[in-house]
Amino acid sequence: MLTLDTHVDIRWPDPPDPLAEGPMRVDFPKMQRGGLNAAIFIAYVGQGKRDEAGHAAAAERAEAMLRHIRDRADGAAHRFCTTPDELEACHAAGALAVLSAVENGYAMGRDLSAPARWRALGACYLTLTHDGHNDLSDSARPQKRLGDAPTEHGGLSALGRQAIAALNAAGLMVDVSHVAKSGMLQAAELSRSPIVATHTACRALHDHPRGIDDEQLDALKAVGGLVQITAVPAFLRPTPEGGRNPGSVEDMADHVDHAIRRIGIEHVGLSSDFDGGGGVEGWQNAAETPGLTAALANRGYGERELGLLWSGNFLRLWRQALAIAV
Prior knowledge:
It is built from eleven helices and nine strands. It is of the alpha/beta class.
C-alpha cells in the first residue's frame, strides 16, 4: 500500500537535514521507520502586507522553498516525484518519495504566470489562502491584526477566478483548505478539475472554522473532489479550557467515518499537517504512521479502502488535474 501524507510543513529558513533524525515530525528516518512512503512538503508563506514588496518577498520565499524541497531528494533512496506515475514507480522501487506544493496564494501576488512556474519546479497544488484574506479569496479565518473585515470579496475575487483558470492550465490542483466557505463553493463550481481540501476536518463533529460542513462535503462529491482529514487536534474536538487537546487517531477515524457516510470513500483521504499544528495520540510523527492505519483497520476498513484513503483518491484527482493542463 502506498502511504502518502498530503500536507507536511517544513521549517524555513534554516531547515534541518531531512536525512538525519531531527526535531521535525517528518524526516527520512522517521518515514522509513513508520512506513510512510511519500510526503508532500509545503512551501508555506504566511499572510503579509498586500503590496508589491510584500508579494515579491512572498514569491521569492515560496520558490526558494520549492527548490529546497526538490533538492532534498537524491534520485535514488529519496526521489522527487512530479507526476502520479513517477510516484508509483518510486514506491515500486522501494524508495521514499518527496513531493511539493505551495500554501497561500499570497505568493502569487497578481502574477497569473506563477502557477506555471511553480508547476515547472514540481509543485502539485496551491492552497488558495492561509489565515487572513488575500487578493484571491476570503479566508476561513480573517485576521484582525491584518485589518481584515469578516468578508472582503464575497468569496473569490475577480483575480481569484482568473487564478483558478491559471491553476487548471498549469495542471496544479486547487486546494481549498483555509478558504472561506463562499470561496470554496465558488472554486468547486469554477475549477475544471476536482478541488481538494488537503488538510481539514468535519464541522458536523466539531464546529471549528477550519473545518468544512456537510454542504461543503456535498459540493466536493458533486464535482468529484476530495476531503483529506488531518491530524490537527483543535480541528477534531474541543480543547478543554486551560488544558491540552486530547485528540487521537480515534478522533481522526470518527471524522473519516462521518465523511465517508456523507459522500463515499472515493472522496475522502488522510493527511497530517505535521509541524503545522498536526500531531495526535497514536500519530505524533511519521514513525507512528501504522497507528492511524490500525485505528482505521479496526473499524473495518480493508486493504482496498485503506489504499484509497492513503493515496488512491488523491492520485486520481492529481491525474485529472494533469489531464486538463494546456
